[in-house]
Amino acid sequence: MLTIRAAAASDDLAIAQVICATPSTWQPTAAEMRRARETFPPTLRGFALVAEQAGVVVGCASLRNDPSTNEPSRWDASVYVVPLARRAGIGRQLAAALHAALQPRASDTILASTSSLDDAGEHFVQRLGASLVEQRFESRLHPPAIDLTPHDQRTVALAQAGITLTTLAQLGAIADIEQQLYQLEIDAMLDEPTQLLGAPPSFTAWRDEYLGDNALDGVLVAIVGQQAVGLCAHATSGDTLYITTTAVARSWRKHGIATALKVASIAYARQCGMDLRTFNAAANVGILRINAALGFARVATHTRWRLQHDATC
What we know:
The chain is α+β, with helices and mostly antiparallel strands. It folds into two domains: 2-129, Gcn5-related N-acetyltransferase (GNAT) (Aminopeptidase); 139-301, 3-Layer(aba) Sandwich (Aminopeptidase). It has nine helices and twelve strands. A twelve-stranded mixed β-sheet has the order 1-2-3-4-5-12-6-11-10-9-8-7, with helices on both faces. Helix 8 (257-272) packs across helix 9. The chain is elongated and about 70 Å long.
């Protein structure tokens, strides 16, 4: 008999095992699941479910309203079912439970992501009547295999132009530095070629999302005098360092700053002893070209789907 219930703290290991059993580049540990649950920003609204069969968790699902989108009616959904338990209707029951839980919130849009590594997952979302929104490429780089010396001259050229590469940890004397980085990110969000552009997040929500989980040494900044003109931030998962954002001030683009920040990111990942990964919209040709030139290799395509939700679901 299948039971669907709210996830509890004691389910962290089981949920991690379910996710790791599915074809995915994300392989979380129980500790990561616990940390994610305990450190969610207070502005984040959401809930998680598990599907249990004969005392064993065989599936999990979650729904969250991400404050960084600043859209109360937009929710991100995820559904995972272990391969051996698929084709038994468990995914549909979890999806239906998410819809049922969401109804009182008057939400009208649910977004779901699938990976090119999991054909069954993509077919499942399509059978739910989802429409394709956009695709993002996940790319990986192994820092020890990359020779960074050809880029030394770029750093020299930037310095000659008055641009210094440093970290947020070194910029405490600039009182409004976080607000400057926030504005950089907002401009980059507005300019990124994406189909999911929403209202800009508040400063607090953005800080929780991009700076709250990062060591200050991992927030790389390009600065001219007292003005931040470039940003590259990171987050860790297991032995992998993820680039969460790369942004350059509009008036300073096409000066090689984005490439220089990526090179600094590779050096930082090498220092941390981690592989480096990044996600970019398929339409963001400029940053994809930079990634390819630096040695990033594409490992998966992630597709975003839209499910319309109303009271009759």
